[in-house]
UniProtKB/TrEMBL annotation:
It comes from the Bacteria. It comes from Fuerstiella marisgermanici. This is Uncharacterized protein.
Amino acid sequence: MPAPSSTVPAEPATHQLALIGDAKRREFRSLSQWLCSQTASISEFSGIEAALQQDEPKLANADLTIVMQSWSDQFSAAEVNQLIGRTLFSRLLCIYSSACESDGRNRNVWPDAVRVPLRLAQSVIEQELQNADRDLDALPPTSARDEIFVHRLGNGDDWAPLPKLQAMNGAIISPDRTLRRTMAQATRELGLKSLEMPLIAVKSGQRTRPQETSRGPVNVVIHDLDPWGPLVEASLQAAREMFPSAAVLGLANMPDAGLTIEVADQPLEAIIPKLDIQHGLRWCLRQWLNA
């Protein structure tokens, strides 16, 4: 009788990354730490010129080249065009900080297809590496905005309900009724049934009593942080008291800007960007579930 064969789990793919820019700057610290935690071999360069002048074919061999841009006009159009030409048949992303938010309106150094705000960097990088593993074509730098949208949206498998969420309950808290409905529908598609609530009004000196839904306790709260101020802060605290066992995620227009400083002392799992609810929501919930 033949001996049973043992199945050895496949090792995760080792990705080759080329990293251009000052990864040690404060705004890129979390992203740099996350990149180091991934299964990746990283070649670092101080600037585009240094990357182009190196003799080894590190750019050509990289699964993904990442440029970290801290301020507008940090890189010249000539440098960028050379880099795009060198990485034309691979993958290139320019991750820009909040100081460069308006560049898409008044500058055209980087094509829209490669520009990614820092708040979405981890989710987009992960998606591009998964596409590389699937041998999918990279997004051409000349792509139109509708093509970029379809590319970032992913395929049907990316939108399958998350099994762990299907046994959980959520609460969406926002003064914006339309946003509440949009978020409730988006979470429902991911498998999470959610309550919809306006901001929780709190009387001075009064504590909020814990509550449950008819299906059991609330496991995750998604709380609108805009406009940040005493009313939103009080509602956020009341939400923690009302749903004491729930993880709390924030929701904001500009999580890269001064808001991150304002909420630094708040125990938030993550802040989901309103400007890209679908992409950011799915990413943040998956990261929370896998933590």
